[in-house]
Amino acid sequence: MKYLEEFQNPELARRLLDEIRATVTRPWALMEVCGGQTHTIIRHGIDQLLPDEVELIHGPGCPVCVTPLEVIDKALEIAARPDVIFCSFGDMLRVPGSDRDLFQVRSRGGDVRVVYSPLDALKIAQQNPHREVVFFGIGFETTAPPNAMTVHQARKLGIPNFSLLVSHVRVPPAIEAIMTSPSCRVQAFLAAGHVCSVMGMGEYPELADRFQVPIVVTGFEPLDILEGVRRTVRQLERGEHTVDNAYPRAVRSEGNPAAQAMLADVFEVTDRAWRGIGTIPASGWRLSERYRDYDAEYRFSVDGITTREPAACRSGEVLQGLIKPHECEAFGTACTPRSPLGATMVSSEGACAAYYLYRRLGTTPTPQEASPVA
Amino acid sequence: MCLAVPGKVLDIEERDGTRMATVDFGGVVKEVCLEYVPDLKVGEYAIVHVGFALQRLDEESARHTLALFEELGLLQEEFGDPWEAAAASQGWDGAGGTPPAALNDGERETSR
Ligand code: SF4
After folding, report:
1. Given an 8 Å threshold on Cβ–Cβ distance, is B36 in contact with A259?
2. CATH code for the domain in which residue A58 is found
3. What domain range is A341 assigned to?
4. Are residue A90 and residue A159 in the same domain, yes or no?
5. Which family does the record claim for this protein (chain B) (predicted)?
C-alpha cells in the first residue's frame, strides 16, 4: 500500500538508527502517547533496535484500555435490553466489564453488532425504526469527529431512534497528569500523529514550555517512529524543549478546522475517569446540551452499577508507564488475549496485548491470537 | 481502533446531502465521508479513520521526508571510516542486536 510500505524501508531505518546512535550521549526516557505507536514499536522490535540510552515508555493512549469500567458496565446493561441494537467497534467486544463482556451479552441473546464506522450504525437505525440503536462512542480526538458528525447527521435527518454512549478522551490533559505525577520519569513525548491531524499542534507549546519537555508529533510506521525519536533525542541533547512535527504529510499546524468546529458544536469538555488511572480534570468530552436527546446515558437510565476490577490486574501501572506488561504476575498465565483480565490485554493497541503477540516472552500465542485484530 | 491509514480517492458523490467517496486501501475499497476534507479530489490520498477522511495526505511532503532519510548518513559514508562503511554496506554493524531486516515481517494486515 502506497505511503505505508515506503515508511517501513529497512535500509532507511538503519540510517535513522545510525543517526540516533551518533547523537545520543546519555540516557533519556521518551513516552509514546498512542497505543498505535506502541503496537508498531513492539511489533517491529524498535525498542530493542534503539541504543540502550533511549528508553521508550508506553503511554495511556489506548482508548479501549482507558474507557472506565463504569461506562463498560453501562454499555453491557444497555446492550442486554431486548429493544436495543448495540453497535460498537470490534475491539470493545472482549473488554471485560465487572461480570461479563459484550461478546457474552451477544451469546445470551443481546443484539450486539460490530461496525466499521459510526455511519453504519446510523444506517442500521434508519433500517430498524422500531428499535433503539445505540453506538458506543469511545476514542481520542481522532475518533471524536466521526462520532460528532454521525450525531449531527442523526439530528439533521430526523432519526430519533439513534443515540450515542459517549466516553471520549483528550490527550493534552493526560500529558499534564503524567507530568505532574510524583513518579514521573518522562523527559519527552512522541505526540500522537492522528490526534494532531484533527487538533493541530496549538495545544502543545504551553505544555512543552511549562514542563520543559520536547513534544514531537509522530506518525505510526516504523520510519515515522524512528524519525520522531531522532528529532526528540536531538532536542534533549541540545537542552531544547519545543514542539516539532515529524509527521508533516498528515499533520498541519492548524489541524482540521472543520472537524474542530463540529467537535465544539456537538461536544463539551468534561472531567473523565480513565480506567486504572483515575479522574483527570477536563480530559473528556460528552454531548453538549443541544444534543442531550441523543445521549444514551440520558435515554436509558442505568443506575445501581457497582464496578469490580480483578485485583491481579496492574493495567493502571502499565498505562502510566510505571511497569512493563511482562512485569505483571498474571501476564501470559492468568491473563491472555483469549481470557483477558484487563482491557490492555484486549485491544490491538493495548500494551499487554502487543507484548503478548510480538514479544514471545516465554509464551506462544495460538494462531488465532497471533492473527491481526482490525 | 485509533488507526488511520492513507487511502486513494477513486470517485466522489453527494448522498443525502453528504459528500461521500469510494476510497481504495491497497485493494480494499470502502465508502468514506468527505465532509471534513471537502476539497479532496479524485486521485488524491487522505488519512482515513472509521469511515471519515480526516486530513489530506500531502504527497509532496511524504516524498520530501523520504528524501531526507535518503540523505542521512551519506556524509559519513563519503568521509567516514572505511571499515565502518564496509560493515554498514554488509547491512548491519553487528553491535545493535537484531538486524533491521526485522522490519520486514511481511505480515501486515491490510486493514491497518
Ligand atoms: S497482563 Fe493482564 S492482568 Fe496484567 S496488567 Fe496486563 S491486562 Fe492486567
Report:
1. yes
2. 3.40.50.11750
3. 314-357
4. yes
5. Belongs to the HupF/HypC family.
Contact between B61 and A248 under an 8 Å Cβ cutoff? The reply is yes
pLDDT tens for A224-282 read 999 999 999 999 999 999 999 999 999 999 999 999 999 999 999 999 999 888 899 99
For A53, the grid coordinates are 540510552
Instruction: Give how many domains chain A has, as a whole number.
Output: 3
Q: What is the pLDDT of residue B92?
A: 45
**Chain A residues within an 8 Å CB radius of B72:** 12, 15-16, 18-19
Domain of A110, CATH number, reads 3.40.50.11740
CB A217 within 8 A of CB A196: yes
| CB proximity under 8 Å: B 27-56 to A | 30, 33, 35-38, 45, 47, 49-52, 54-55
DSSP state letters, B27-58: TEEEEEE-TTSTT--TT-EEEEETTEEEEE--
Contact of A42 with A49, CB cutoff 8 Å? no
Quote ipTM for the complex: 0.89
Distance CA A257, CA A132 (A): 32
Residue B82 predicted with pLDDT over 90: no
* Closest-lying ligand 1 atom to the alpha carbon of residue A326: 1
Is A19 in the same domain as A159? Answer: no
pTM of the shown model: 0.86
Verify that A226 and A287 share a domain, yes or no.
no
Q: Degrees (nearest 5) of the Cα angle A183, A189, A192?
A: 125
Q: Do the bridges between strand B52-56 and strand B45-49 make them parallel or antiparallel, or are there none, so unpaired?
A: antiparallel
B110: pLDDT strictly greater than 60: no
Query: Checking DSSP bridges between strand B18-25 and strand B5-15, what pairing results, if any?
Result: antiparallel
Least confident range of A69-78, A296-305, B20-29: A296-305
Give residue ranges with CB within 6 A of ligand 1: A 312-315, 318, 325, 328, 330-331, 335, 340-342, 344-345, 352
